[in-house]
C-alpha cells in the first residue's frame, strides 16, 4: 500500500489498525459510489459507465473482517437518515392499505420512496421494487456473509443472484419480472446495486466455484487480510467521532452534487497505461486467465479513480494515480491468488495444479537462452495453452528479445535468444 494516500482514503483508514488498511481502502468504494446519482464516466473504449462497485473481503476465520464496518457506517450516515424517513412513510402506507377492504379505494404507492440501503436477505421481488422506487439511484447492501446473496434466487436452482452481479456491472442492463396478480411486483428496471460482502477464503472459493468462468469474479473487487502470527497483539482502533464525520462531510457532499458526464484526462491516461501494462504482463506470463480478469479489473480501477476525482473536488495528482495503480495490482493479486488456478483448471480441463499466480517467464530465463530452455520453463510453470513458437514470436515482435544465433549442428531446440537492452532496462534483475 502506498505511503502517501489520497486525502479521502487517508481519512477513511485513519482510525484503522495498519494490518487492516489495505482491505478498508478497497472496501469503502461501493458505499462512496452509492451517493452518485445520474453521473457517468467515459472509459477508454468510449463506453459510459456509472460507478458500479462490488467488493468481497476474503480472509481467514477471526482475521478481523469487521474492520470495514465503521468506515462504511459513517459514509452511509446521510443515506440512512433519508431511508429512515421513507421507511416510515412506507410503513404508514402499508398500515393504511391493511385497514381497507379489497373493494375500497386504495391509495397508490407513495412517490419518492427512495430507500437505498436494502436488507441482504430480501426477496427478488422486493429487490426489483426497491430498484423501481430508487429513481435511478444506487441500492446498497452490506453482507456479513456472501451467501446472503442467495435470497435473490428466484428458485432453489436459480442463478439469478449471479446474474444480478453481472448485470449490475454492465451499462444499460435491463432486469425485472412480470406477474399477473394486482398486488404483485411487475417492473423492468436497470440494476444499480453496490454492495460489500465478507467471507472466509474457503467459503468464498466454494461459493463462486460454479461460475468461475461466467463473469462474476471479473466484475467484483476483491481484498483480503493477511494471516497474523499466532499470539499477535490485538489491533487497536481509533475513535470515529464528530470530528471524523465533519472531515468526511465535504467529500460526501461533492459526490451527492455530481451530475452528468464527468471527464478526467488523468484518469483516462492512467487507464490506458494500466491496460498496456496488464497486456505486457499477460504476454510475458503467458497467462490467458490473467489477461481476461485484467480487462474488467482495469474498468474497476478507473471507476474508483473517478469516484476519488469527484469526491476530491476535481483534483487529480500523482498520489491518486499511485493509489489507483496499487489498487488494481491488489485486486488482481487477490483474484489470481484465490481463483486463478481453479479458473485455469476449469477452462483447460486439466487436473494439474500450477504454481500460485502467473509469473513473468522471461524474467525466469537467463539473459541468453535457448528455445529448449524456454519450452522447459513453460512446462515447469504449468503452461499448457498456446505454443512455444507463438510466444517467442510475440516476444520478438514486442522487442523483448532478439535471435542471437543457432546451434552449429542446426538443432532448432538449441536456437538462441537474447533479451534486448530496452527490456533489461525496464525489467532489471531482482536482487536476492
Question: Would you mind describing this structure in some detail?
Answer:
There is one protein chain. The chain has 432 residues and is of the alpha/beta class. Among the domains are: 7-76 and 117-259, Rossmann fold, CATH 3.40.50; 361-426. 46% of the residues lie in helices and 11% in strands. It has helices at residues 7-12, 21-27, 29-33, 69-75, 77-98, 124-133, 160-169, 201-207, 216-219, 242-257, 265-285, 288-311, 318-348, 361-364, 371-380, 388-397, 421-426, and strands at residues 39-42, 48-49, 54-58, 139-143, 175-177, 187-189, 193-199, 221-224, 260-262, 368-370, 401-405, 416-419. A four-stranded parallel sheet has the order 4-7-3-8. Strands 2-1-9 form a three-stranded mixed sheet, with helices on one face. Helix 11 runs antiparallel to helix 12 and helix 12 packs antiparallel against helix 13. The longest helix has 31 residues, at 318-348. The radius of gyration is 25 Å and the shape is elongated. Mean pLDDT is 88; it is low at 178-182 and 351-355.
Give the SSE string: HHHEEEHHHEHEEEHHEHEHHHHEHHEEH
Strand content: 5-15%
Largest beta sheet: strand ordering: 4-7-3-8
CATH architecture of the domain at 7-76 and 117-259: 3-Layer(aba) Sandwich
Compute the number of strand runs: 12
Unreliable stretches: 178-182, 351-355
Q: What's the total helix number?
A: 17
Radius of gyration: 25 Å
Specify the structural class: alpha/beta
For this structure, what is the CATH class of the domain at 7-76 and 117-259? Alpha Beta
> What form results from the Cα inertia axes?
elongated
> Regarding quaternary structure, how should these chains be classified?
single chain
Terminal CA distance reads 22 Å
CATH topology of the domain at 7-76 and 117-259: Rossmann fold
Helix amount: 40-55%
Amino acid at each position: 500500500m502506498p505511503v502517501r494516500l489520497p486525502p479521502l482514503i487517508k481519512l477513511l483508514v485513519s482510525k484503522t489498525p495498519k494490518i487492516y488498511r489495505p482491505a478498508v481502502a478497497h472496501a469503502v468504494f461501493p458505499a462512496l459510489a452509492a451517493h452518485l446519482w445520474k453521473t457517468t464516466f467515459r472509459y477508454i473504449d468510449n463506453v459510459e459507465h456509472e460507478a458500479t462497485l462490488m467488493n468481497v473481503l476474503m480472509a481467514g476465520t477471526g482475521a478481523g473482517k469487521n474492520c470495514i464496518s465503521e468506515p462504511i457506517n459513517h459514509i452511509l450516515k446521510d443515506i440512512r437518515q433519508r431511508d429512515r424517513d421513507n421507511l416510515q412513510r412506507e410503513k404508514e402506507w402499508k398500515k393504511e392499505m391493511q385497514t381497507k377492504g379489497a373493494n375500497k379505494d386504495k391509495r397508490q404507492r407513495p412517490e419518492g420512496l427512495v430507500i437505498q440501503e436494502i436488507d441482504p436477505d430480501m426477496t427478488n421481488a422486493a429487490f426489483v421494487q426497491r430498484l423501481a422506487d430508487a429513481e435511478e439511484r444506487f441500492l446498497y447492501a452490506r453482507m456479513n456473509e456472501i451467501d446472503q446473496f442467495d435470497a435473490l434466487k428466484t428458485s432453489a436452482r436459480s442463478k439469478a443472484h449471479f446474474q444480478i452481479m453481472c448485470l449490475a456491472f454492465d451499462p444499460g442492463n435491463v432486469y425485472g419480472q412480470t406477474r399477473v396478480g394486482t398486488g404483485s411486483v411487475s417492473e423492468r428496471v436497470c440494476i444499480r446495486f453496490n454492495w460489500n460482502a465478507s467471507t472466509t477464503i474457503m467459503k468464498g472459493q466454494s461459493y463462486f466455484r460454479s461460475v468461475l468462468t461466467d463473469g462474476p469474479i471479473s466484475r467484483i473487487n476483491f481484498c483480503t487480510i493477511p494471516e497474523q502470527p499466532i499470539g499477535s497483539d490485538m489491533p487497536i482502533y481509533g475513535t470515529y467521532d464528530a470530528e471524523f464525520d465533519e472531515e468526511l462531510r465535504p467529500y460526501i457532499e461533492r459526490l451527492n452534487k455530481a451530475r452528468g458526464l464527468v471527464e478526467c484526462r488523468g484518469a483516462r491516461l492512467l487507464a490506458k497505461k494500466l491496460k498496456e501494462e496488464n497486456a505486457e504482463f499477460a504476454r510475458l506470463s503467458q497467462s490467458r486467465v490473467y489477461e481476461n480478469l485484467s480487462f474488467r479489473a482495469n474498468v474497476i480501477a478507473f471507476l474508483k479513480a473517478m469516484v476519488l476525482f469527484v469526491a476530491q473536488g476535481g483534483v487529480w495528482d500523482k498520489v491518486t494515480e499511485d493509489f489507483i495503480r496499487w489498487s488494481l495490482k491488489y485486486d488482481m493479486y487477490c483474484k489470481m491468488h484465490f481463483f486463478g488456478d481453479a479458473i485455469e483448471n476449469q477452462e483447460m480441463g486439466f487436473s494439474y495444479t500450477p504454481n500460485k499466480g502467473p509469473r513473468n517467464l522471461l524474467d525466469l530465463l537467463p539473459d541468453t537462452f535457448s528455445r529448449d530452455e524456454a519450452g522447459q520453463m513453460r512446462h515447469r510453470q504449468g503452461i499448457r495453452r498456446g505454443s512455444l513458437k507463438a510466444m517467442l514470436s510475440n516476444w520478438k515482435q514486442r522487442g523483448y528479445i532478439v535471435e542471437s544465433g543457432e546451434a552449429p549442428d542446426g538443432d532448432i531446440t538449441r536456437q538462441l535468444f537474447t533479451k534486448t537492452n530496452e527490456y533489461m532496462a525496464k525489467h532489471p534483475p531482482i536482487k536476492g
